[in-house]
Amino acid sequence: MILRLPSPHSVVPQVILQFQGQVLYGSWFDHVHNWLQMKGKENFLVILYEELQQDIQATVETLSHFLGKKLSPEELNAVLKNVSFKTTKDNKMSNCSLSPDIFMDQIKGFMRKGITGDWKSHFTVAQSEAFDKIYQEKMAGLAQDLFPWE
């Protein structure tokens, strides 16, 4: 958990701040919208977390092809082992456990479940509808099928 948030044990206040664009490093919507305008360019690859969840091996192979790197079976297996959610969650370089306690609740941790769709256990129907409305406004002009969300 990031302790500097207004309510560090709930995702909802962070999302509300995102809606308002009042977050460190700027709005997620602006960040993603600007990057997704690059979709289709030769040197730009979009990989969705949902794709990683569905078929991590195919996604790694797509990435290695994009980078022009042919992976041996041993290299592919090493990548697959090291990018699994469990390995990433246990890795001090990626799980924020090296962050000072003043910023992070080291007991709860930074990484949660590693599953898609968990937002449903945090958002009310009204919050979900509000997100959908703001998403449509902020992401206007981009393809509507970019994210495989329900």
From TrEMBL:
Segments forming domain Sulfotransferase: 17-142
Protein name as annotated: Sulfotransferase
Gene that specifies this protein: LOC118884579
Keywords: Transferase
Enzyme class name: transferase
Catalyses which reaction(s): 4-ethylphenol + 3'-phosphoadenylyl sulfate = 4-ethylphenyl sulfate + adenosine 3',5'-bisphosphate + H(+)
Family note: Belongs to the sulfotransferase 1 family.
EC number in record: 2.8.2.-
Molecular function (Gene Ontology), one example: sulfotransferase activity
Organism classification: Eukaryota, Metazoa, Chordata, Craniata, Vertebrata
